[in-house]
Amino acid sequence: MSAVRDQSPAGAPPDAAAAAAIPDVRLVDVTKRFDDVVAVDSLSLEIPRGSFFALLGPSGCGKTTTLRMIGGFEEPTEGAIFLGDRPVTGLPPYRRDVNTVFQSYALFPHLNVRDNVAFGLRRKGVKGKDAVGPVKEMLHIVGLEGLEGRKPRQLSGGQQQRVALARALVNSPRVLLLDEPLGALDLKLRKQMQLELKAIQHDIEITFVHVTHDQEEAMTMADQIAVMNGGRIEQLGTPTELYETPNTAFVAGFLGVSNLIPGMVASEGTVQLRRGPLVHVSPEVIRGRSGDVAVGIRPEKIELGDGQQNVLSGRVVESAYVGVATQYIVETPCGRITVYVQNARAGSEAAPVGSALTLSWSPEATFVVDSTEEEPA
Amino acid sequence: MSAVAVRARPRRNAAASIWAGVRYHVLTVYSALFFLYLLLPIAVVILFSFNHPTGKFNYTWQGFTWDNWRYWNGVPGLQSAITLSLEIAILASIVATVLGTLIALALVRYGFRGRGATNILIFLPLSTPEIVLGASLLTLFLNLNVVFGFWTILIAHIMFCISFAVVTVKARLVGFDRHLEEAAMDLGANEWVTFQRVTLPLIAPAILSALLLCFAISVDDFVVTYFNSGSSITFPLFVWGAARIGAPPQVNVIGTAIFTIATIAMVTNVLIQNRRARTAAAAF
Ligand SMILES: Nc1ncnc2c1ncn2[C@@H]1O[C@H](COP(=O)(O)OP(=O)(O)O)[C@@H](O)[C@H]1O
Ligand SMILES: [Mg+2]
Q: In this complex, which of A98, A106, A150 lies closest to B183 when CB atoms are compared?
């Protein structure tokens, strides 16, 4: 796991470094079965203190179930969950130092904004006027001053979302869980809230665990992303790591567009394409694989011409001008390759359909994933 | 082209408004007739509570008097019948609503063995003819050698009220967002506090409806009560008995009073709802 950003609060005890080393959330071999459905499949995970952590994956891959097990709304069938160094498996939600922003917001319809936000403080025994200060401050942070007296149904979706956030954060939990919190907002508001959430997390230094199926959202906000598929973590890393060197075809395909070309590992730094030339890759991305693999290249990392070490030729079958770039589909012996070429210079002519093109890319821009083809029967 | 369209529009509007006017008045007339049909019998009941009958029968108008209202309990047995009916109705509706709410919670919230069967059994009293219900209960009580009276009536009323309470509260719980309770627990409320602070306030309207419904059903039940009352006399039994020998106008007085109270309660409810809807709309 990569280095944790140093966010230990000022005035922390001397062994703050040691405390920061303990992950805020730790799942050990957690499995959750619903009857015969395995929602989460022996998943292990450590979420470093103070990080903005995203669980990313397609619908039904077990993100919500994972989050609900951390929050205490579901108990794992097998495995253990720790918050800091405290095992919490079996504890009800009200005995866990985490708070949740629900996808549906789940604001109490019979309480106004002030009482919604104060709900957690009241349960902690904060009496009367003592709750006013923290509530006011939190409403300021989320930008909802002046709406204290409104009922949830008198708020817009975006405002409700902010109340849900304030209601959770006012309790200063160890970890904040967010289940697709922006899912119900329109695109513009969603973009804005992504940045705001990120800024709030940075200011208050609470660990955020953010569930989403939107790769762009995860990349924008998270320090670390766990890509989930079928109840398991496919790959965990920073957005850059996941994008530049995806480990599996699933990750490569889920985060953006990539070209995958079947081949076979030839040496420590080369892969022989099935119906093409030998390509050079950096030895790290092979990760000890041998035999059938697939070589991956992002469309924007491919150049026209033979300026780079790995070269492939083909014929243009489709060409689309999309303003900032021109998108080509090139038919090569290895299959169709998607290429994005930036329109950096004015007036550059696009290669016409049917013309021959030479494509090249550097070994550093190349990644390797397990073979995407079915095992031969 | 556009000029034609502009000129054509007023004519279409005029036609539309005439048609709307016709429809408006048809609806008015229809509604008036409908309400007349509904309200005429009630009007007669109210009117005859001021009648001054000369004989035993309160069926022909003899003259106006306040006496029936002033001496509303002037008929032997009437006051005790009303008292008994109110006692039974209050107790039965409270017990049935509490039990019904708990049953509804169990049925909606928990999967348990026999949930499907319970769901069907709850509906049975609603669909069984009352006369069958009353007669079977009579048989049961007879076999158990129970003394008929207050307690048998109460048990019978609780029995058929529970179904109504369950159905009413269940309807509200089915649309209840479970995440609300999870949110409460997430914010530090244990199960009991969650129930008190979130569940109960949110299903309170349904509980109140159930209470009123049970009260209304209990207070005017005749068939089941008739089978299981022994020598006790509730208000409906009194009216029935009195009607055979000539119902006194005081029966109309009680009927009018009940109607008035119910109407006031209903109008108040509607006004409150409207006010709420208006403040909600105004806040935007
Ligand atoms: N309460 C439940 N009962 C039965 N199956 C469930 C339940 N909750 C989730 N599942 C199943 O578990 C899988 C993972 O669901 P979920 O965690 O909600 O996925 P995600 O949030 O990634 O979309 C799905 O196949 C879903 O149908
Ligand atoms: Mg989900």
A: A106
Q: A243, A270, A297 — which closes off a domain? A: A243
Whole-angstrom distance, CA of residue A279 vs CA of residue A289: 15
pLDDT bucket at A286, cuts 50 / 70 / 90: confident
Cβ distance of A171 and B187 shorter than 8 Å: yes
Q: Do A93 and B185 touch (CB under 8 A)?
A: yes
CATH number of B75-283: 1.10.3720.10
Percent of chain A whose pLDDT exceeds 70: 93
Q: Of B128, B136, B200, which is closest to residue B169 (Cα–Cα)?
A: B200
**Are both A193 and A285 inside the same structural domain?**
no
Partner residues linked to A52 by β-bridges: A208
Question: What Cα–Cα distance (Å) separates residue A287 from each residue in A249, A266, A281, A295?
Answer: 15, 13, 11, 13
Q: How many A from CA of B59 to the centre of ligand 2?
A: 70
Closest approach of chain A CAs to the CA of B186, in angstroms?
5
Q: In this structure, which ligand is nearest to the CA of A68?
A: 1
pLDDT, tens digit (0-9, with 9 covering 90-100), for B42-84: 999 899 899 888 777 777 888 888 888 888 888 888 899 999 9
Q: What's the CATH code of the domain at A266?
A: 2.40.50.140
Of A212, A243, A274, the one marking the end of a domain is A243
Cα gap B107→B111, rounded to integer Å = 7
Q: Are residues A214 and A65 in the same domain?
A: yes
Residue A106 to residue B177, Cβ atoms within 8 A:
yes
pLDDT at residue B3 tops 50: no
How many domains does chain A divide into? 2
**In chain B, domain spans:** 1-38, 75-283
